[in-house]
Design a protein that fits this description.
mainly alpha; flat
C-alpha cells in the first residue's frame, strides 16, 4: 500500500519538524529566563535585558527579531572583548597565557558552532521564524562566552581578595 507508507512518512517528517521547532524555541527561551543573579557583570545584565525587550518589541520569531539578534551579536562580541582585555591587563603572566590559550580554543569552537548553525539552516529561502532562530543561535555563542568570562573574572577577583 504505497499511499499509507507515504502518509506515514509525511506524518513522521511533520512530527520531527515540530519537535525541532520546540527544541529550538526552548533553546532560545531558557537562557533568557536564567536568574539575573548569575550575571556577574552589570553591563552584561543591562545588555541582556535590552536585547530581550527589543526582540519582544520586534515580534518574537520574526525578521525583526533576527535583526535585533544580529545587532546584539556585535554588542555581545564587544562586551566579550572588553572583558578579555580587562582580564589580560590585570592577570599575572601565567594566567594571561592560560586565558590566551582558552580564548584561541574558544575561537575555534565558535567557528565550528557557527558552521554547524549554518548547516542546520541551509534552505535558500528560510521561513522568517528560522531566520530568527539562526540569528539567535549565532548571537548566543558569543553571549555565552561573555557571560562565562564575566563569571570567571568575578570568581578570580573574589579568590584573590580572600587571600
Amino acid at each position: 500500500m504505497p499511499g499509507k507508507s507515504s502518509l506515514a512518512s509525511k506524518a513522521d517528517v511533520c512530527t520531527v519538524s515540530a519537535m525541532r521547532i520546540l527544541i529550538l524555541l526552548m533553546a532560545m527561551v531558557l537562557p533568557l529566563t536564567a536568574p539575573r543573579a548569575l550575571m556577574a557583570d552589570e553591563a552584561l545584565e543591562k545588555l541582556d535585558a535590552e536585547m530581550e525587550k527589543k526582540a519582544e518589541e520586534a515580534g518574537g520569531a520574526s525578521s525583526g527579531s533576527a535583526r535585533v539578534y544580529a545587532d546584539y551579536a556585535d554588542l555581545w562580541d564587544k562586551e566579550m572583548n572588553r572583558l578579555y582585555k580587562q582580564m589580560m591587563a590585570e592577570l599575572p603572566e601565567a594566567q594571561k597565557n592560560a586565558l590566551r590559550e582558552s580564548q584561541r580554543a574558544w575561537l575555534k569552537y565558535r567557528d565550528a558552532q557557527w558552521a554547524w548553525i549554518e548547516s542546520a539552516y541551509t534552505a535558500d529561502a528560510l521561513p522568517t521564524m528560522y531566520m530568527s532562530f539562526r540569528a539567535y543561535a549565532h548571537m548566543d555563542v558569543v553571549r555565552q562566552r561573555a557571560l562565562d568570562l564575566a563569571q570567571r573574572w568575578e570568581g578570580y577577583q573574589e579568590f584573590r581578595e580572600s587571600l
